[in-house]
Every structure is written in structure tokens, then in C-alpha cells.
Amino acid sequence: MRSVLKVDHVTVRYKYGDFRDIGLKEWTMRKLTHRYHVEHFLAVKNVSFELFEGDMLGIVGSNGAGKSTLLKAVTGVMVPTSGTIERNGRISALLELASGFDGDLTVKENAYLRGAMLGYTKKFMNEAYDQIIDFAELKEFEERPFKQLSSGMQSRLAFSIASLVQPEILILDEVLSVGDGAFQEKSAAKMMEIIKSGAVTILVSHSVEQVESLCTKVLWLNHGESIALGDTKEICELYQSFLSGNMDALQEAKEKWPRDAELVKEAPVNG
């Protein structure tokens, strides 16, 4: 089976400190007088996984676990501090669904705008528009200003457009929670259609039930570290136990899915 995405010992380091709040002149003075303060934070630590055609990976973890940072590295929005990412196919990411729209334009105009941003031609959008607006269940709102839509309705439109063309790699960050139960079911069905086409999908969701029902494997992150990678049902049960207050579940997962013995590679830091 063909490898579509390979993440190999990826580490992402953030630099933060007083440089964010001072001007260039003050920054220069502090550098010259050795008073410049900067710290480093490892948001993702030595994470590895490989996905093949038809895989759907669920990524779970508490807030601050490194999930969104890892997705940004996978999509190319952020360059890893160390490690490599191999992508073999077109990638489509739904990370911030409501971004990139113009609130003063109509829903229909925004559909064409988002399509253009994704590289779709006007001819393609003309042919696909009815399908997009019907899937998003926004036909009666198409001539209204976009800003009058609820956040859930805006997300439905973005999802409908982005899932229109079959990518080889689809990245979803909390997007299947938009809309009511019926739309969530429809979105899930669309994801299964994409998976069956052979696409690789990565889903980040706070819903353990959603991850367990949709994903073929799971990655559990905690403070940037890979705690467990593998069987969906088993890992989801342990993670749910952890969320319920069973701290032993974390240690049990670490022992059952031992991490790579290699230490996190420290990339050179320029302060």
C-alpha cells in the first residue's frame, strides 16, 4: 500500500519573550547590553507516524497538547524545528473554517471567493455551486450578507466548498462539530466517502466518540509528546479514562506504546 504521509521525528519549538512587546530600538539596545530575554518552548516533541491510502488518523489530547501545532507542520504552514515530513499528494486543510470570508459580500459571492482562494476556476464553481449551497443547506440564505450567518452556518459553507474536490490528504481540525446533529452525520458520511476514495485524513476532535467511530488509528498527544499511536478503540478508552481523572491511564498508555528511545533532537537555537 502506498505511503501518503510520513512524519519522522518532528519537533516544533516556539521562541517567545520580551521581543514581542518592544520596538526595534529597544530590542537592539537589549541585545547590545545582554539584557534581551527569550525563552523556548517545545510544542511538539519528536513525533513520528506514517499514513497509507485510506487511513484516517484521529489526534486526541487536552488543550495545549500540540495538536494544532502538529497540523500546521503537516500542512506546511509551519516549518518543523527538526525532523521531516513527506507528503505524497495534494493536501486540503480545514483549520480555521470561518477565515477568508468577506462579511459584507453575499453568501453566494463568498462561495466564489473561497473557491478562488482554493484554486477553483469560475467555470468549475459555476458547475459546482448548486451542489455546494445544497450540501451546506444555505439555499435560502444565498443572497444575504455573509455576516448575518451564524458561525455554524459559515463553517458549513466552508466545509462544503473544501470537501468538494477529492484531495489525497485532508486535514480537519474540529470541523465535524459544526451544525446540528443531522449536518454532523452528513459531514461524517462525506468524510467516509473521501476515505473510501483512498485519501488520507487527519481529524482533530475533542469528541472521543467521534474519533472512535470514524478513525482507523489514533495518536494521543500530551504536552507535545506522543503517548500512544495505534488501535482506535483501545487508545480512546484509555484517553477517556484519563479525561475522567484516572491519571494511571497515562502511564499505562506509555508502557503499552513505548515511545522511540531516541531523545528529542535539540535543534540549534539562535537567541
CATH hierarchy: architecture of the domain at 3-90 and 167-256 = 3-Layer(aba) Sandwich
Low-confidence stretches: 260-271
In N-to-C order, the SSE pattern is EHEEHEEHHHEHEHEEHH
Main sheet properties:
6 strands, mixed
Determine Rg (CA atoms, Å): 21 Å
| Total count of strands | 9
Distance between the termini: 44 Å
CATH homologous superfamily identity of the domain at 3-90 and 167-256: P-loop containing nucleotide triphosphate hydrolases
> What structural class do you assign from the helix and strand content?
alpha/beta
**Overall CATH class of the domain at 3-90 and 167-256:** Alpha Beta
In DSSP terms (H or I, runs of 4 or more residues), the helix count works out at 9
Widest beta sheet: strand line-up? 5-6-7-3-8-9
Structure description:
The chain is an alpha/beta fold. It has a domain at 3-90 and 167-256: 3-Layer(aba) Sandwich (Rossmann fold). 37% of the residues lie in helices and 25% in strands. It has 9 helices and 9 strands. The chain has helices spanning 24-32, 67-75, 107-117, 122-135, 151-162, 181-196, 208-214, 232-243, 248-256, and strands at residues 3-17, 38-52, 56-60, 82-87, 91-94, 169-173, 200-204, 217-222, 225-230. Strands 5-6-7-3-8-9 form a 6-stranded mixed β-sheet, sandwiched between helices. A 3-stranded antiparallel β-sheet has the order 2-1-4. The radius of gyration is 21 Å and the shape is globular.
